[in-house]
């Protein structure tokens, strides 16, 4: 089964080229723009994620189908209310998934790939993880609700297409009601910031209302510094994909107690026994 998002890849690549050319002909000193090595790395990570993701999707479909079969009811795809439920349930699942991947180090080791660029442009959207297996548990409840698996996969693709357009500095703030309800480039720039006030904020996918309800919303204010609090200084796709797993393994091996080993895996990024003992 080929994910619907695959069909959008040519358009994504074309739009990356268009945005890169816009910086050449309409430069802006306040915006980072593109850097060739960074862009190549992002595109390589995106290509690798699709190669890894295709066989994983087969497993995910089987898991969703099993959960759907166990559901006491099956919702009809011909009902508009099924699609309404799917939209909100998928977006909430994404918020929970995204927040967990910032607060649990073993999950962060997968997601950190997407935050590893010190630039913010449409190519950054393509910088995706090569370990997609951490996503499955967050969407299984949708199948248990009786939503057909193909609908779940389709809505996931719609969400990812929407989020592609959030990765740009070329768009400022939008009409206030839009900014209040929906995730926008302004909100997502905050999410990619390494500024202290921007850390672990604005997890939303299509909607920003979950962040407002969950008290994780932060409006764009001070200039955003993109990247990690400690950048990895590499364009090597293999290191980008697995550097945090390697770092976590080093910490686990050096830990003296099982409690500390567990803390290095399920604690938040930056967790340490010393920090806990203060």
From TrEMBL:
Membrane topology field: Multi-pass membrane protein
Keywords from the named record: Lipid metabolism, Membrane, Oxidoreductase, Transmembrane, Transmembrane helix
Protein name per UniProt: Sterol desaturase family protein
Organism: Streptomyces genisteinicus
Residues spanning the signal sequence: none
Any single biological process term in GO: lipid biosynthetic process
InterPro entries the UniProt entry points to: Fatty_acid_hydroxylase, Sterol_desaturase/TMEM195
All residue ranges annotated as the Fatty acid hydroxylase domain in the record: 83-216
Residue spans crossing the bilayer: 80-97, 136-154
Compartments where found: Endomembrane system
Molecular-function GO terms, alphabetical: glyceryl-ether monooxygenase activity; iron ion binding
GO CC annotations on file: endomembrane system; membrane
């Amino acid at each position: 089964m080929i994910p619907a998002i695959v069909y959008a890849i040519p358009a994504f690549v074309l739009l990356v080229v268009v945005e890169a050319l816009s910086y050449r002909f309409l430069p802006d000193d306040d915006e980072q723009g593109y850097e060739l090595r960074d862009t190549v790395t992002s595109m390589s990570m995106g290509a690798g994620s699709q190669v890894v993701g295709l066989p994983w999707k087969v497993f995910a479909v089987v898991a969703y189908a099993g959960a759907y079969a166990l559901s006491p009811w099956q919702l009809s795809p011909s009902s508009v209310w099924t699609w309404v439920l799917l939209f909100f349930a998928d977006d909430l699942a994404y918020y929970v998934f995204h927040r967990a991947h910032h607060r649990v180090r073993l999950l962060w080791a997968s997601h950190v790939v997407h935050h590893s660029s010190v630039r913010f442009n449409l190519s950054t959207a393509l910088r995706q993880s090569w370990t997609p297996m951490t996503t499955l548990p967050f969407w299984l409840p949708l199948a248990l609700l009786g939503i057909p698996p193909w609908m779940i996969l389709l809505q996931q693709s719609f969400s990812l297409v929407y989020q592609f357009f959030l990765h740009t500095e070329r768009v400022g703030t939008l009409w206030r009601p839009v900014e209040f309800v929906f995730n926008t480039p302004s909100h997502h720039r905050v999410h990619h910031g390494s500024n202290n006030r921007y850390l672990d904020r604005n997890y939303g996918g299509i909607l920003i209302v979950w962040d407002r309800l969950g008290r994780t919303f932060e409006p764009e204010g001070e200039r955003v510094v993109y990247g990690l609090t400690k950048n990895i200084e590499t364009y090597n796709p293999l290191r980008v994909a697995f550097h945090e797993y390697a770092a976590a393994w080093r910490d686990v091996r050096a830990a003296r107690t099982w409690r500390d080993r567990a803390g290095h895996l399920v604690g938040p990024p930056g967790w340490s026994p010393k920090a806990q003992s203060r």
